[in-house]
Amino acid sequence: MKYLLNPRVKNIQISGIRQFFNMIQKYENLVALTIGQPDFPTPSLVKEAGKRAITDNITSYTHNAGMPELRQAACQFVKERYGQVYDPLEETIVTTGASEAIDIAFRTILEEGSEVILPAPVYPGYEPIIRLCGATPVFIDVRETGFRLTAEALAAAITEKTRCVVLPYPSNPTGVTLNKEELQKIANVLEEKDIFVLSDEIYSELVYEGAHTSIAQIASMRNKTIVINGLSKSHSMTGWRIGFLFAPAYITKEMLKVHQYNVTCASSISQYAAIEALTAAKDAPRMMRHQYKKRRDYVYHRLTSMGLQVEKPSGAFYLFPYIGTFEQSSFDFSLRLVKEAGLAVVPGSAFSDYGEGYIRLSYAYSMELLMEGCDRLEQFLKEQN
Length: 385
Ligand SMILES: Cc1ncc(COP(=O)(O)O)c(C=O)c1O
Known about the structure:
Blueprint: H1 7-11, H2 16-23, E1 31-32, H3 44-55, H4 68-82, E2 92-95, H5 97-109, E3 115-120, H6 127-132, E4 136-141, H7 151-157, E5 162-167, H8 180-190, E6 196-200, E7 225-230, E8 243-246, H9 249-263, H10 268-278, H11 284-305, E9 318-319, H12 330-341, E10 343-344, E11 346-347, E12 359-362, H13 367-384
Parallel strand pairs: 1-10, 3-4, 3-5, 5-6, 6-7
Antiparallel strand pairs: 2-8, 7-8, 9-12, 11-12
The structure holds pyridoxal-5'-phosphate (PLP).
């Protein structure tokens, strides 16, 4: 019967991050700086609201697009924080994490043969969904431009088949963000073109220099941009599975159908708690951001002192140093790091072929673990010389 299984599904792989994570489970006493998940507990107000939702029987289906109060709170939040203005009833969908938002957005806009442009190295959650749609990912190598997608490179990659450009900033795995001027140049390229932008802004609350800016704030782009956001990273709520889609009504209306037949609605308990996150606990990300910034500065300083070449990240919670000088694949390097130094990181190749030559360290870990991890890396590097 195997031959009857959908070849598109058979051809996709489980993410390189998970593969590596599963493989190193057998090693003991590891310091693991692998996972992109906040180490803070969910704010207590949010946890209390979740408990209340269960006690008060808020345990039924909600509106497919999400509780109206939550959509209202989400729109209010992005308006206050980033100046993004969306209608809670017509232009907002509450999803099961940003992951579902990516899935339903692609399934709504892509057809067989469509091309999707992605700046790479890139988060591995896009390519498999693009391929499941019968579409083709087109990677732009951004290693030579400080991991930033430039307007020139974008213009050169556009073809008749281009349906969408993914802007995943702040970026996982590099931590790089685009500023207003860079976004404006990209908008100039896209202005006259019928191409959607999928702007994945899941790390928008974790920007350390300046304010988060979104291409959707540029007037000419609003009508073609789908914004993804959520509470996983901002409020340390990865397990609650709450994401958001903001897009003009003509797209949202269609995405809502895919969402309805996919999950009906996000969990009512999580939605109820999410209202609290975006109202009473709306400042919770500030405290976490403050801690992440200290950690970023510490690890960045340690890596550069070891002689590693690394872009200083302005957002998210990752560093992506270059290890190509050691003349081994990022996978072999990472495996040796596990076996010989007791330190786990993610091989850059998990972020497309363009991540080869790099490793990703997450600093969503306590300062003690980061110190120990850096010590182990330093020792390992010394032994290479
Ligand atoms: C860039 C990016 N987008 C989306 C997601 C998925 O987020 P969620 O856990 O809300 O599904 C992640 C998770 O690591 C991510 O790094």
